[in-house]
Write a structure and sequence with these properties.
The chain is α/β, with parallel strands linked by helices. It is built from 6 helices and 16 strands.
């Protein structure tokens, strides 16, 4: 018995020494020529990420102030374009409000929100810096800017459009944008004054609406209808529409939709990473220009907006 135990111990020792030798002589994993990084991980002071192939770690301090999201490790970057002065005061007021609301969401959700009144940023070099472009209350009229935006979208860029960014009575002036990309064609009619309404959630098979109930309550808005039948377009997925129960819509004589009419108010074009939403017109007294509503006042609508934005990037 003693000899048997001794033999077992000798074999175990040999195996242990062999394994130890193998560990000491094994070569370290060679770093990749081209790393395949996952997403950044963040602490309060720094960010780091690892290569999925070789384990190489990239780490550095944040490049931001205390109140801003670090531009290096942000999950994505947004560029919002429109006007802040001039035009319809309710439209410019919406953009100003968005410039307060989106930075709060950016800080909480780890993305960058930049805004500008310069549509000249629609060029290949500037667009390469951003994952999402928003048209807040306008769209480019310059052909070079239009062509740069079309290239951006056709090469995988993301877009979110608001309210008057789809307004036109001459859709053929930019046929790709109004008829192919948006699919809406010309502006047809609108309600006045801006009113909050009940919106029907048309599908739960889309990232923007997957977590919403059957109906949501909107903030105040001036609602648009369109010349093209969006439901007849196989490339369009309608996300939200005015619920039949919410009619009549509007509260100004002569500009009220009294009886039900099918009005999509948010939709996606399945050929692009895009979502258009008709919201973006605050209630305002045009005599003294006092603000009487806020677009980002409905928590249900805000959830839709945020799910839309993050989903555009995550599902592209």
């Amino acid at each position: 018995m003693k000899n048997f135990v001794s033999s077992i111990l000798k074999v175990s020792s040999v195996l242990f020494l062999s394994l130890l030798a193998a560990c000491n002589t094994s070569k370290p994993v060679e770093p990749c020529e081209v790393h395949s990084f996952g997403r950044w991980h963040r602490t309060e002071t720094e960010h780091f990420r690892k290569c999925k192939r070789c384990g190489y770690e990239e780490r550095s301090l944040h490049d931001n102030g205390e109140e801003l999201v670090c531009r290096t490790c942000a999950d994505f970057k947004v560029l919002a374009l429109g006007y802040l002065e001039g035009g319809d005061p309710a439209h410019s007021d919406f953009f100003k409000e968005a410039n307060e609301w989106f930075p709060l969401q950016a800080k909480e959700n780890g993305f960058i929100y930049d805004y500008s009144t310069d549509f000249g940023k629609l060029n290949d070099d500037d667009l390469a810096e951003y994952d999402v472009v928003m048209f807040m209350n306008n769209y480019p009229g310059n052909k070079a800017q239009q062509e740069a935006f079309q290239r951006y979208m056709e090469n995988g860029g993301c877009w979110m459009g608001w309210h008057v960014s789809a307004f036109t009575t001459e859709a053929t002036s930019w046929n790709w944008y109004f008829n192919e990309f948006l699919g809406s064609g010309n502006f047809k009619s609108n309600t006045r004054n801006p009113t909050p309404e009940i919106l029907k959630v048309e599908t739960h098979d889309h990232f923007a609406t997957a977590n919403l109930p059957q109906q949501i309550h909107s903030s105040h808005n001036e609602w648009y209808s369109w010349s093209n039948d969006l439901r007849a377009n196989k490339d369009i997925t309608v996300l939200l529409s005015l619920d039949p129960s919410t009619f009549p819509v509007g509260d100004r004589v002569g500009e009220i939709w009294q009886t039900y009419v099918d009005v999509p108010v948010a939709w996606a074009n399945n050929n692009y990473n895009m979502i258009y939403m008709n919201m973006g017109h605050n209630l305002m007294d045009y005599n003294d220009f006092e603000k009487e509503s806020r677009t980002f006042s409905s928590e249900e609508e805000n959830e839709f907006i945020l799910e839309s934005l993050i989903g555009l990037v995550d599902y592209r």
